[in-house]
Amino acid sequence: MTTISATDVAVGTELPEQVFSVTRADLVRYAGASGDFNPIHWNERVATDVGLPDVIAHGMFTMALAARVVTAWVGDPGAVVDYQVRFSRPVVVPDDDAGAEVTVRGTVGALLEDDRVRVDLTVTSGGEKVLSLARATVRLPR
Amino acid sequence: MTTISATDVAVGTELPEQVFSVTRADLVRYAGASGDFNPIHWNERVATDVGLPDVIAHGMFTMALAARVVTAWVGDPGAVVDYQVRFSRPVVVPDDDAGAEVTVRGTVGALLEDDRVRVDLTVTSGGEKVLSLARATVRLPR
Q1: Is 0.90 surpassed by the pTM of this model?
Q2: What is the pLDDT, as a whole number, of residue A1?
């Protein structure tokens, strides 16, 4: 259900922040769901052998988490008409129950034609930006 | 395609032996396919914390491998009308590309009514029996 309308938002409107925990178990599930079984996402021996600090999250999984902040705000996943990110740093997932913390903040960055807005996302883990130029275009109801 | 007929077999007929390699990657895939995400099947920290020597294979995965020796022999998975095993020891899967070796041998143990035969399976890994009382009932064409 859409809860935000085009008349409610302005440049600078902030979306509710969300903090996600990403565990190794999430990555094993995402491997099966996505078909991406690259062992850098579940095996630290392989990950460190190829120069990574540890197991890292699938980039598309992080991208999907960030999108949830937008879809939770607008209430309707179908309202997202465009979504792009660059993967700037990996989300490093330690081998414990807490996993990695991924914090997603969103701000309305521009008002576009036809009741569309651009949401600019800031996605961090361990104090570093893990996505850059993360932007969603959302069509809001009147 | 069924390649064995009821007139070809006797008590003591041996099925072609198969040796399977079971890797951690197989278990991550099987977790997704089966929905069994228990970390003892993909995380050695958790596995050793609960007293296991290392990551172990899903029992049902081992059971499925053993069944392949029967279905490869008879040529038709639908010919297997009953299949039972007991899980006697875990298949321990080291963190390397070779993984665990699972050897499956089968012998016709009994001729039953209606062109059915009982196949007795011997399934070993690391020199130990990992399944016991592993028996498949197969209906053979005339």
Answers
A1: no
A2: 54
Tokens describing residue B142: 């005339």
pLDDT in tens, A77-126: 999 999 999 999 999 999 999 999 999 999 999 999 999 999 999 999 99
Contact call for B39 and A24, based on CB within 8 A: yes
**Cα Rg, chain A, nearest whole Å:** 16
Q: Looking at this predicted complex, what is its ipTM?
A: 0.83
User: Is B61 in CB contact (< 8 Å) with chain A?
Assistant: no
CA–CA dist A62, A41 (Å, integer): 12
Q: Does B23 lie at the interface with A, CB-CB under 8 angstroms? A: no
Out of B29, B39, B95, the one facing A45 most closely (by C-beta) is B95
Interface check for A38 against chain B (CB to CB < 8 A): the answer is no
Q: Report the C-alpha gap between B107 and B76 in whole angstroms.
A: 17
State CA A96 to chain mean position distance.
21
Q: Is B139 on the interface with A (CB under 8 A)?
A: no
Read off the pLDDT of residues A41-62 as tens digits, 9 standing for 90 and up: 999 999 999 999 999 999 999 9
* CATH fourth-level superfamily of A6-22+57-139: Hotdog Thioesterase (3.10.129.10)
Distance from CA of B28 to the nearest CA of A (A): 6
Tell me which chain A residues have a C-beta less than 8 angstroms from the C-beta of B25: 37, 39
CATH of domain B6-22+58-139: 3.10.129.10
Whether residues B29 and A24 touch (CB distance < 8 A) is answered with no
8 A C-beta contact, residue B56 and residue B90: yes
* pLDDT at residue B2, as a whole number: 55
Interchain CB contact of A29 with B (< 8 Å) = yes
**Paired sense of beta strands B128-139 and A14-22, if any:** unpaired
Using the predicted structure, report yes or no on whether residue B3 has a pLDDT greater than 80: no
